[in-house]
């Protein structure tokens, strides 16, 4: 009884403080029917319902991590437009950070990234079910940042443009060999074989991706030019004219990046070209995502995922024996991609709930919309880096960047 009274007293103080300093467009509704306005708005954008008093300790320190935890565990409900909900979440977190004197406790995390651990982490994220991803990705099921060349493309067009942008960047030629590290459901290697005439190997650690990619290669009639493997990049042998890695190195681990790029160098032909496309941190020290959301991501979304700053990417790439030839920022493209995904996810919400259950539905709902906000506001970033073996003669390299946009390649 005394504990409950103490919590209620804390809650009253917290409500007054939020109303005074954060002024959020939120209606707070408690389990007993009591309602409070957390800002000076006639019509709040979001209603936050506390379903159980057990949620109060999480709510009183409303970091993104705590709010996400309470939402996923169904201790709170959030009603309103998804974009408004995410904005409010960041508003709560900013207020909590300010109240804590600008600091929220962070626990340094270190992952070993053994082959077994990486396979388990990939299975957790990607083996939900292929039907689940079909509901909100484009028809090719490309699960990485699209390329909105003009800004008004639909998602399917932008994803195809992304693939062509990558294959054009690496100057893929007919008859060349291509290794795609983390091939997903096979969209890039199929395009590389069909349009550019390449011979491809695509590798993944996801059984579901392997099964569907294999089936799609057969359906496309390019079995003679594409091999899909269930394989770790550390176990690949041979050499390839071109190597692409799209949305995969986030699973490698910051400490393992020199080895990852070193392995890429070993697999690359002496005159070959590689491209790494990956999410990066905006913290120059490669720290965690701002606003304390890293704990939620590791627990519920990307186990063992780690994001390096682009500076660390370039340094470790050189340590691995590669030279960066071109670096392109795609943050604005990923913000738009994620908005498309989040909108598709909301549109198919009932079907997704039925397919994966309420808990997983809530995890992915928060994850997609939260990431859209993070890329929009420069809290996360993403780069494509073209590279080749270090030490190549300068006169063997293109003299300008025009080749990146040469759409006649592969025709």
TrEMBL record:
Pfam families xref list: CMAS, DUF7884
Q: Which keywords label this protein?
A: Lipid metabolism, Methyltransferase, S-adenosyl-L-methionine, Transferase
Source species of the chain: Cupriavidus pampae
The reply to whether Cell division figures as a keyword in the UniProt entry is no
**What InterPro entries does this protein's entry cite?**
CFA/CMAS (IPR050723), CMAS (IPR003333), DUF7884 (IPR057206), SAM-dependent_MTases_sf (IPR029063)
Cross-referenced Gene3D superfamilies, in alphabetical order? Vaccinia Virus protein VP39
Coiled-coil ranges from the UniProt annotation: none
Q: Which family does it belong to?
A: Belongs to the CFA/CMAS family.
Protein name per the record: DUF7884 domain-containing protein
Establish whether keyword Cell wall biogenesis/degradation is in the entry.
Answer: no
**Domain DUF7884 span(s) in chain numbering:** 19-90
